[in-house]
């Protein structure tokens, strides 16, 4: 059986570049933009509940984001890279083995996150230094969210397999349907619409995980029904397959950890300015963090297209696709950054009316917003780099960002500087990601033919 026979793989290997991005990235981008809208519902409904709830969501956000970045972005990228390169080589046996080994990896990650964030969440949240009311509400949220975490990890695994097989159209429909349920139940279970109970933040946690669980089960059943040429088959453990997945996914997880650590470190330093400052920054951090799924809208497609073309030894084609995809995202991020720079109320007014939180948020957007396109450009190339199977240099971008934020944050705290100096450091740190990923495009990793 040839894995190149499907229209999806022929599109990736032979179609004009603009056609690939239009047919694959457009549905993925629509899906991601809708998912981003759903993500905004969490701080929106939390803001309706009060400033304490909004601050609680802000300190949970780095940890919840870490799960998504590791599951969908880092290890998910490793699965997509290994699977798509196997398909590019037309190796069915290896592709099936990748799926089985990926399942074992996701099961292990699910268990780790369950143990850490169900049993030790209070210890972690106390390190941030927020008020007790804020921490207590965050702990209850975390125990529900991560207690149901295995459903979320199943969803991440299925999404990665669909991406590896290039089925972005079906994935977009599934994600949008899932998001609709998440959006409705976020409001219904937090505020108590109609006959449903008002459960506060706990309701928001349930509304996120349960729809993902049902979507994951649906995708799993479709694979068992023969949707793709590949299938779930138990096979002997193969160290080479684990290494192939984790040399991308494991290394990229370091980048995900550095991103979460960057948000956490920033939140710790900002907590010194008060609960309102945490809330104001938390709302803006949501916007900053959405640049990653925005980059994923095209970059997620680039992972599989680069992987498939690398497997088929079409290296120049893979580079050209990546450059165009990164440029598109940089333009979109630039529009977003300039819009919130000029009209910060378009974002902040949607989440809070607290005057102190609003002032902090306005200052943040005015300083950091112009750096958005550089950061998004780099993150798009980061996802494209996953398809090459080599992530050593790309993770330096995330680590460099963390180091810069830590140094600036400590300096601001030690010398009691105004919060704006910390925000300037965040902007400079974001630009380092774009610069490093740009330089990486000229390395041997991207030019193996030379």
Structure, described:
There is one protein chain. This protein has one domain. It has helices at residues 7-14, 17-49, 51-88, 92-119, 121-126, 132-147, 149-164, 168-192, 201-224, 239-271, 275-311, 315-342, 345-348, 355-368, 372-386, 392-414, 419-440. With 450 residues, the protein is mainly α. Helix 3 (51-88) packs parallel to helix 11 (275-311) and helix 14 (355-368) runs parallel beside helix 17 (419-440). The model has no long low-confidence stretch (mean pLDDT 83).
Order of helices and strands: HHHHHHHHHHHHHHHHH
Category by helix and strand content? mainly alpha
Number of domains: 1
Strand content: under 5%
Specify the helix fraction band: over 70%
Largest sheet: none
Number of helices: 17
Distance between the termini: 32 Å
Number of extended strands: 0
Radius of gyration: 21 Å
> Mean of residue pLDDT?
83
Large-scale geometry:
globular
The oligomeric state of the chains shown is: single chain
Uncertain runs = none
Structure, briefly:
With 450 residues, the chain is mainly α. 82% of the residues lie in helices and 0% in strands.
Set down the secondary structure blueprint.
Layout: H1 7-14, H2 17-49, H3 51-88, H4 92-119, H5 121-126, H6 132-147, H7 149-164, H8 168-192, H9 201-224, H10 239-271, H11 275-311, H12 315-342, H13 345-348, H14 355-368, H15 372-386, H16 392-414, H17 419-440
Helix pairs in contact: 2-3, 2-8, 2-11, 3-4, 3-6, 3-7, 3-10, 3-11, 4-6, 4-7, 6-9, 7-9, 8-9, 10-11, 10-16, 11-12, 11-14, 11-15, 12-14, 12-15, 14-17, 15-17, 16-17
